[in-house]
Amino acid sequence: MFSGVRFRALRALLSDPMGALGLILVLIFVAMALFAPWVAPADPIKLNVMEKFQPPSLAHLAGTDQLGRDLLSRIVFGARTALSIALTSVGLAGLGGLILGMIAGFGPRWLDAVLVLMFDSMSSLPMIMFALAVITIVGPGTGTLILVVVLVSIPAYARLIRAQTLSLAGADFIVAERAMGASSARILFRHLLPNVVGPLVILLSMDVPIVIMLEAGLSYLNLGVRPPTPSWGNILYDGYTSIRAAPYMVLIAGLPLVLSTLGFTFLGEGLRDALDPKLRRGAAR
Amino acid sequence: MTALLSIRDVSVDLSAGGWFGGTAPLNILAGVTLEIVPGETLGLVGESGSGKTTLARAVLGLQPISGGRVRFDGRDLIQPADFRAIRSRTALMFQDATASLSPRMTVGEAVTEPFAIHGVAVNNHRDKAAELLVEVGLPPEMAARYPHELSGGQARRVGVARALALKPALVIADEPTAGLDVSVQAEILNLMADLKDKHGLSYLIITHNLALVRHVADRIAVLYLGRLVETGPTRAIFADPRHPYTRSLTAAEPKPDPRKRRTDLAIRGEIPSILRRPNGCEFHTRCPLARDICRTQPPALKDLDHGRAARCHFAENTTEGGRHELEY
What we know:
The complex is a heterodimer of chains A (285) and B (328). Chain A has 11 helices and no strands. By secondary structure, chain A is an all-alpha fold. The two termini of chain A are 23 Å apart. Chain B is an alpha/beta fold and 328 residues long. Chain B is built from 11 helices and 12 strands. Chain B has helices spanning 52-59, 80-86, 107-117, 125-135, 152-164, 182-199, 210-214, 234-239, 244-251, 292-296, 322-325, and strands at residues 5-14, 26-36, 41-46, 67-72, 75-76, 90-93, 170-174, 202-207, 219-224, 227-233, 302-303, 309-310. In chain B, the strands form 2 sheets. Chain B has an 8-stranded mixed sheet with strand order 6-7-8-3-9-10-12-11, with helices on both faces. Chain A binds chain B through residues 3-5, 171-173, 175-183, 186, 190-191, 194-195, 285, and chain B through 57, 60, 62, 84, 87-88, 90-92, 94, 96, 99-105, 113-114, 117-118, 146, 149, 162.
């Protein structure tokens, strides 16, 4: 359902040039990931050693790598890898943070104290160190990456939701619900939930590029996605090792990384401005 | 007649405590006793910080009480289940009507929320919402609006509509005219009076404005620092207030002839902090009649004639002119 509030937020987002640009970039990457088999001109993992290190040409728009694989196809399928990992892990972390944060903010005080202690000890660990530790124990791979991101990001999301829940739990409209006899479940799902998810959505969209960067970074270190699965980090690593033979490879692998990061960041900032009525320009009713 | 709502000796202590016991508890309400009979309107008057909102929440079990007893329609309210059982027969109207509406719910959803909560079958929510809105003098199209799109008076009417949805026996209205223009204030009060006649409601109207309850309340209770200082029928309270605090409140009311205004009765200074309740009579720090006994002996709530009661050492002889007898 398109409620009035949300529809107005969408209009506000589109009227902001940065927000609109962000939305367009994100949509391009999402389309690229969803329709990769149709968008990509060639098979991204098919070797063709005869055609290795070909600079961009009509046959290979982005050139080929050290094994003769079509780079454009690898970038397109890399988008699928990057987005599926980023969206899955950020989505799972967001869901976990939402549930834990609402429990901490609305539940009994002892449970809140226990959860906050857990969030604090979790976020005192440096992300990369923690990631390397988990990879050492579990072994590298897509699942490990998602696990690391979920574990590391839950505390930040949960803390945001907890603060929102706490500040709303004493609000008049929640007290009014209690005075009318609403159950805790009704208050949580019908009244608190819709009012706390807004800021979380913004934070999630701004965290997607961080996860894309982490995936690329760990894949670059050969600790992330296993070859031959195309990943922007793997392509970047291949480009780095053969930078003399094919200097264009680093550039071509870096470009989507930069553009997707910008896209999600602009979208997040645009959403933040569009959803916060106080920041919305020219919104005087 | 048996009381619809009976509050006996209710106290509320808030502890600002932390992990290690914290500070001594704050005594917000100290032994308040009140009754409301069916069809009656009780005006509860007090300054900010006198505990009037706390009392409203304590009555509805939204604020745990530390002593005393609340009875509704002959039933003691102790367990959460007791309060849940009466939720459909009580309603609370908030001081800030806009803030009391869920910001992402339309007006139509808000006024039919009580039906959803209590599982009351409604044939058509849209018709029911329209009916409720019309009853409080709003156009039915208002159902599609969001709370932030309403004016103060409209939000207030929506609050009334929601409070009346289940035809409750008791409506507790916390500052029902706060933040409204004088003309809109009168409209809301008239609306509340009409609905009372129509549905036979009882009201507990909480306000700092004595003049407001003069025309709507059958009885008045005056609260000072969480303690009842005077109760009685509205007419008696205005004709002959027995507590100097009530007297200064009635004197503070604007008069058509400003020369008749009694400036000598004006209370001085601020309400004392409940963190440091004064010794003796808690009003002595601001009382124009204060004498030695007031600084040491706390007065009891004395029953007087005409169903009145006042908490003052001189309640019997501080009628108009009584001040001279006291050689003040």
